[in-house]
Here is the input.
Amino acid sequence: MTERIVLAYSGGLDTSVAIGWIAEETGAEIVAVAVDLGQGGEDMDTIRKRAIDCGAVEAVVADARDEFADGYCLPALQANALYMDRYPLVSALSRPVIVKHLAEAAKYHGASTVSHGCTGKGNDQVRFEVGIGALAPDLKVIAPVRDYAWTREKAIVWAEERNLPIDVTKKSPYSIDQNVWGRAVETGFLEDIWNAPIEDVYSYTANPAEPRDADEVVITFDKGVPVAIDGETVTVLQAIQILNSRAGGQGVGRLDMVEDRLVGIKSREVYEAPGAIALITAHQELENVTVERDLARFKRQVEQRWTELVYDGLWFSPLKDALDTFIAKSQEHVSGDIRMTLHAGKAVVTGRRSEQSLYDFNLATYDEGDSFDQSLAKGFVQLWGLPSKIAAKRAQQH
Amino acid sequence: MTERIVLAYSGGLDTSVAIGWIAEETGAEIVAVAVDLGQGGEDMDTIRKRAIDCGAVEAVVADARDEFADGYCLPALQANALYMDRYPLVSALSRPVIVKHLAEAAKYHGASTVSHGCTGKGNDQVRFEVGIGALAPDLKVIAPVRDYAWTREKAIVWAEERNLPIDVTKKSPYSIDQNVWGRAVETGFLEDIWNAPIEDVYSYTANPAEPRDADEVVITFDKGVPVAIDGETVTVLQAIQILNSRAGGQGVGRLDMVEDRLVGIKSREVYEAPGAIALITAHQELENVTVERDLARFKRQVEQRWTELVYDGLWFSPLKDALDTFIAKSQEHVSGDIRMTLHAGKAVVTGRRSEQSLYDFNLATYDEGDSFDQSLAKGFVQLWGLPSKIAAKRAQQH
Amino acid sequence: MTERIVLAYSGGLDTSVAIGWIAEETGAEIVAVAVDLGQGGEDMDTIRKRAIDCGAVEAVVADARDEFADGYCLPALQANALYMDRYPLVSALSRPVIVKHLAEAAKYHGASTVSHGCTGKGNDQVRFEVGIGALAPDLKVIAPVRDYAWTREKAIVWAEERNLPIDVTKKSPYSIDQNVWGRAVETGFLEDIWNAPIEDVYSYTANPAEPRDADEVVITFDKGVPVAIDGETVTVLQAIQILNSRAGGQGVGRLDMVEDRLVGIKSREVYEAPGAIALITAHQELENVTVERDLARFKRQVEQRWTELVYDGLWFSPLKDALDTFIAKSQEHVSGDIRMTLHAGKAVVTGRRSEQSLYDFNLATYDEGDSFDQSLAKGFVQLWGLPSKIAAKRAQQH
Amino acid sequence: MTERIVLAYSGGLDTSVAIGWIAEETGAEIVAVAVDLGQGGEDMDTIRKRAIDCGAVEAVVADARDEFADGYCLPALQANALYMDRYPLVSALSRPVIVKHLAEAAKYHGASTVSHGCTGKGNDQVRFEVGIGALAPDLKVIAPVRDYAWTREKAIVWAEERNLPIDVTKKSPYSIDQNVWGRAVETGFLEDIWNAPIEDVYSYTANPAEPRDADEVVITFDKGVPVAIDGETVTVLQAIQILNSRAGGQGVGRLDMVEDRLVGIKSREVYEAPGAIALITAHQELENVTVERDLARFKRQVEQRWTELVYDGLWFSPLKDALDTFIAKSQEHVSGDIRMTLHAGKAVVTGRRSEQSLYDFNLATYDEGDSFDQSLAKGFVQLWGLPSKIAAKRAQQH
Here is the structure.
């Protein structure tokens, strides 16, 4: 029986060419797998058909948009996941769900190997291969771009020679990865980190500098899950989509940063993630209102570690699983409404209300009705500062 | 010899009245100490004169603006200090420098006691008293508002009865604390956390929603210290002042949040800190370019702990001192230029350049000149994921 | 209806006297509550009778030994809880379970107040009162020793005057708190921290210096729970009791340290915890075998925070609850056998075996059968060290 | 000019053979470098002569014992460095100092390459190569065992064929790495982790089970540095040597554990480190007495990270340098005497005294002279528990 290889397929030039090239190199049959994560562009049927036309024996397309939103974007939202305090893990979240579909397809179609189109200097190879290792440790991996120095130029020649049904003429200067959680853009002129992005690199967001009216939105959370927008019930996917549109329309969520890759180098990255940034901003403030202080302080450490793990390709790992239980527990009271103004590139919280609020007007107010017993404070202050005071006395003596 | 008490004096109604009241209650002589931290308002001579007129035996005013900028704001900038990822510690930074001046005045004037006007439900009482305990552990503390339930209403009556030279009629609805690093505003209607701030609460920042031209600025850092703006050499104080003006003019640095106080309650706080936010944003990105990954990751934990300590009143503490050495070491390569656009409430980095950059174009580029050896990646990925893979195999067997 | 006060009752002089004293001071009826946590000594019936004889209207005694072992000692074991890397939280674990019984008794008997005998300079007052605040926030607290300067001397006079059925003559030089998880001893001569403990302070442990034969034991864990000793099924309580006897018989578990109390002072403490130390030692090594590296590394931070929280009286707190979920998740594969030698004050692991082991002989061996692909290592090493190398190159240039 | 390669030379079979083999394979001249870290065994002159006899063009031997003790063991002591709470980093500390001598020799002798004898599944290859990358990023590395599958069997044949001056007949079943800080032993039968070590594997420590008299020692530290033993001034090296002898004579410092290697596998390791364990035990308790609580708590996290970094081969790294400054600062008051009893495998602290002590008898005592103001405690307890209490009230309402 002929060996089979499952290929992560995007429909683009590189992976279309890879179908034939890998088949030729290995003698194996290629099963192409494309996963819809809300990246837009061509419809999945067109992509499936192209895979077959390029020589795949099977082509699987999966609408994983809700799966991605519920199982990957939502945990990131609850972790307020911002790598280096900025980047909401757009690509890093998508790789594990693709890996899951690859592993399932490999099992279903009896494949021994999976293949991806990542280079050897990025994070995505790690996310693919470590994920495969965790979900299907017996599968082998082929990475033509990395392991066989396969380039775009070679791909064009290959496609032309074999007359593959791909338009090789339209060349974008941008290398783009996008899904419903956001969009990442790399391009040559941004590799000079003194250069500013130009308006042309953006697609999910309008220019924040253009004058327009502000947009006010109320987001309702139930136990850390966004469940309604302006009172209308939504799925997580819908919440992200609606805010991509509304926050994106106000220019919210553009990011431009130098980033530490797992493979040891720094790179310059430009992102857009209007829905993600709006949701995380709202969620953080609702946590400020509903999560107890010590829990909130420790959760920041958990969030950082969770984010680093996911960035570093360890979505499927024992530590990630254990951190998930912590985060899940922390969400049990994160319910209520956040009102935000979306305008000129910013999502600004202007109001919060919650039946689970730990904000106690009577304890906080300086007006009448104050129920805080100030006489307790003196003792608190004295003992709180006692270790420092004892240390200070010692320092004076020496 | 008559006992002396050093009073932290602002020139306002409450502390003006306190001069006479404490003197009467205790029989002690009052030494008023006012410290200029760039809060603006009345000049220091006027304040000094009022203290004397209200009955102080001595009135000390100190221009501590450079001391505050260099010794308190700068360490906060290098720590990227944002409490709860938001608040740049405006009041929390000012208390230790005031405490230092109080302790020095107490020593110079032979006082046995210091007095402050803080309430018993806020953080500032802790910062004052823990600071005094650390700098002058033998000093006693009197806090009339907290310990004797002294109120504004009582103060007005007292001032009128004694005909003190204070205007008791102009009553602001706002309780304000401000210095060069920022401004904090509390007011009754904001104690309902669903209410949005109104434009009237702001003073350091223009309305970000009003259309105006963007402002581009280049900030130069040397070892973590801002040393030039648009090529003009500046002191730290000048850097903050210039950016307060320019970033403030674009509406940058408004904050509205629910915050965890040390005394165990949540409160609603509105802040403005245009210079602080602009500087921290620039500094963070320059660190992204110049600080090695593992150091940057651990520094985030150090930053959080540093910020909590300072918020919690432990500026003068052994842990703070030790964290300072870590942060100082981390800054030795944080030199270079950051170009930012200030506009519509946002400070956005658009370019960075540094002779200390760890960003290596040749390692990062996808174009020609790439010096990254991709053949190394396969082994890295395999061993990086090995623990997860072994754990996954175990999970499959059980 | 007469007010009722629930008193944490030990049967000793202080709390026996407190029954009458509090009743007299407050006019309330006293409900005495004694909880058996395996502390040994008098039987619970005797204690109940004495409470009644001293004037209690009700006396409740509860055998909470299994509840304590399963609900308090076991989580501490799974957290490898050693405060300051030494102290297994003997008293800190017992307070929350006592508090739970006090709160239940208060509810059942309609009491408005609880009372405890702790001083104002120890940790236990915090554990009692914070626990009460969390379980029954409306209950008031009376602490006669702390709030009314009630002393042992006053207690003796009081008892003699009223002819209470307590032997006031036998005076131990030791202040002791003990339960099945261990024993804490304080005494005057140990307050000089240069003094060594004498053999007389110990009760749970034999002198480790005396020659005797070693004892070998095999402890079986199932998901982090000790379930068998030398193949005999045990409850958690039995596991602790058996190891108290066997490890205690070899002098295991003596501790002598200077400790940081929550109230801001350092104190000298001597403990014995043979069962706890033997179990934690075994559990740690089984985790070394069965828990993945990154999870193990982060768990150490979680363990430290968990331990500090419990030491600091925050057993009933949102952060503790969330850390518990993390720890519970981490235990799912901690199953297997640990063989230990108990001898001369040490519990030494000599063997481990587990069907959940992540130790893979074929990957680890240097003999034949080695399945580790050494060719992967070169790439790993290069990329692992790349950030340091880039930083080193920079340092050379400047 | 002929290329030169610097070889890390031990004098043993493998590296003796490597001299000729590398020369033959590469055509380069070999410079052998042997570093004395207190490992004992043959004298350095014998080793140098053998290198020449085996074909080295130069043979450098360095007495780095004090350098190792002062620059590597001492920082580990101040970090209380115990990987996985057990292993005092014996080999991990030695690699960086060897790397330093290799890099210096490479520079001095104009070599382009260094070579080491490590396998591809251990940690030491990482420590060597990452260290070389940080100290001399332009040097190349050859690892014959890893990269050319060079085995002991091949080495014996090679040595016999060329009649090299090495005794190939005596074959130890143990693979040993040792230096003054400790000794690591691996051997086939211990790869079965259920097997206990036998007495024969130990060399630095006597059998702790044999009866003998206890040994009492007083160690004096000055700012974290051991400066005297029983009143006699010592260097750090002497302190370690004396305690290796005295603590080793009592069987102190044996370790047997399953350990997480950086390369992703678990391995079984047996160590002896009597001096290291005795010194760390003493140092930890002196820190308990002299280091303020918050600093001590955070230092535990720093210690863990420092230890992981050094274990993971990142001695020469920016984060390690920054953590060093924190640790150095933390030691400024760690001065005083620790009295210990060494006996039956344990080093037990029995007394501590320090002019820098933060233990305050008057605050701690329950006898007369108590200066602790217990009236402060009530307020402290109330506010300390307030966040939990507010959260508990919320939980009751829902």
